[in-house]
Amino acid sequence: MTNQIVHYLTTDEAANRLGVTRERVAFWIQSGKLPIAARSGVGFLLSVDTVDKLGPALAASTPPLPWVRRGRKPKPAPVPLPCGCVPGTRLFCRHGAILSAAVDLADGFAAECDSPAYRGLARLAGDALAEHLRPPTIDPDPAPVMKSEPERAAA
Ligand SMILES: [Zn+2]
């Protein structure tokens, strides 16, 4: 029986050896920082010597990858509105829940009865919910005092 010496690593094995993700190793290969030894049916093969020589410094100095998983971008956490609604979810404040129920009801009627009135109602309810879920905007130059109608007419 002979001692089997492993000379090559797959990208997965190199990633495990260096304690980084497969995507990071692929990024190093793609950017020319980690030369491959060969291509095989399972992908790139890397020399153990090269991985051990270059890998630790790369692992220590590379900034975080611009992605989390291949093909997926990190999704920002939904931010709740001051009223409690969370846009993009089904989490609503009391008003949002009523508007959402109105949208569902109007959509149901519009689907069952082919009537312009129900379609209009569904559109109105949808617009009202969208308006409710719009994040508050910060006015860069807010009016300091609300004027009454006679004051505005006098100005
Ligand atoms: Zn709300």
How is this fold's topology laid out?
Layout (H helix, E strand, L loop, with lengths): L7 E3 H8 L3 H9 L7 E3 L2 E5 H14 L32 H19 L3 H18 L15 H6 L1
Antiparallel strand pairs: 1-3, 2-3
Summarize the model shown:
This protein has helices at 11-18, 22-30, 48-61, 94-112, 116-133, 149-154; strands spanning 8-10, 38-40, 43-47.
Characterize the structure shown.
With about 160 residues, the chain is mainly alpha-helical. The protein has 2 domains: about 10-60, Multidrug-efflux Transporter Regulator, Chain: A, Domain 2, CATH 1.10.1660.10; about 80-135, no CATH class. Helix content is about 50%, strand content about 5%. The chain has 6 helices and 3 strands, in the order βααββαααα. A 3-stranded antiparallel β-sheet has the order 1-3-2. A hairpin with a 2-residue loop joins strand 2 and strand 3. Helix 1 packs across helix 2 (about 20-30). The radius of gyration is 30 Å and the shape is elongated. The protein starts with 7 loop residues before the first strand and ends with a helix. The model has no long low-confidence stretch (mean pLDDT about 80). The structure holds zinc ion (ZN).
Strand order of the largest sheet: 1-3-2
SS strand fraction: 5-15%
Q: What average pLDDT do the residues reach?
A: 82
**Helix coverage percent:** 40-55%
Name the shape in a single word.
elongated
Identify low-pLDDT runs.
none
Order of helices and strands: EHHEEHHHH
Q: Strand tally, please?
A: 3
What count of structural domains? 2
**Main sheet attributes: strand count, strand direction, barrel closure:** 3 strands, antiparallel
The gyration radius over C-alpha positions equals 30 Å
- Structural class of the helix and strand makeup? mainly alpha
Distance between the termini: 101 Å
- Tell me the number of helical segments per DSSP (H or I, 4 or more residues long): 6
Ligands present: zinc ion
